């Protein structure tokens, strides 16, 4: 039952992200595009491993960033340097994941597209 609840709450979180978090939806759309492109060019196994890992890494970091933002907003609605540090660090995590995904996308797809 506890295991079932953990899944239930996790899916509620996923549903919330897909309804309310525009950034998550944009990342999800880029991920779906990358997967469609992978099917079009018929990626090999290694290509799929990197592309799917990059897509999930971006989605996971965005989910945690949204969680950090929500927790910070719950703690204070006033300016606080630690609130800024927490939110900026969360945003940096997403940025790093997005850079990683862009580099992987270029390295994997360019040889197929040339
Ligand atoms: N309470 C706060 N104290 C200090 N700085 C804050 C605070 N809230 C937000 N900031 C600063 O403003 C930036 C943007 O915060 P905001 O809450 O608008 O998040 P966001 O990245 O625009 O995400 P979203 O659009 O999903 O709300 C933060 O990265 C941080 O630098």
From TrEMBL:
Pfam families: DAGK_prokar
Organism phylogeny: Bacteria, Bacillati, Bacillota, Bacilli, Bacillales
Organism from which the protein derives: Salinicoccus bachuensis
Cellular localization per UniProt: Cell membrane
Record's keyword terms, sorted: ATP-binding, Cell membrane, Kinase, Lipid biosynthesis, Lipid metabolism, Membrane, Nucleotide-binding, Phospholipid biosynthesis, Phospholipid metabolism, Transferase, Transmembrane, Transmembrane helix
Membrane topology listed for this record: Multi-pass membrane protein
Molecular function in Gene Ontology: kinase activity
Family per record: Belongs to the bacterial diacylglycerol kinase family.
Name listed for the protein in its UniProt record: Diacylglycerol kinase
């Amino acid at each position: 039952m506890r295991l079932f609840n953990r899944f239930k709450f996790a899916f509620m979180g996923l549903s919330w992200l897909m309804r309310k978090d525009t950034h998550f939806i944009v990342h999800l759309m880029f991920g779906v595009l990358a997967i469609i492109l992978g099917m079009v060019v018929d990626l090999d196994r290694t290509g799929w491993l990197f592309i799917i890992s990059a897509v999930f890494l971006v989605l996971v970091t965005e989910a945690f960033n949204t969680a950090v933002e929500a927790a910070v907003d719950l703690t204070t609605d006033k300016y606080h340097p630690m609130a800024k540090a927490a939110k900026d660090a969360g945003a940096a995590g997403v940025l790093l994941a997005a850079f990683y995904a862009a580099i992987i996308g270029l390295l994997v797809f360019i040889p197929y597209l040339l």
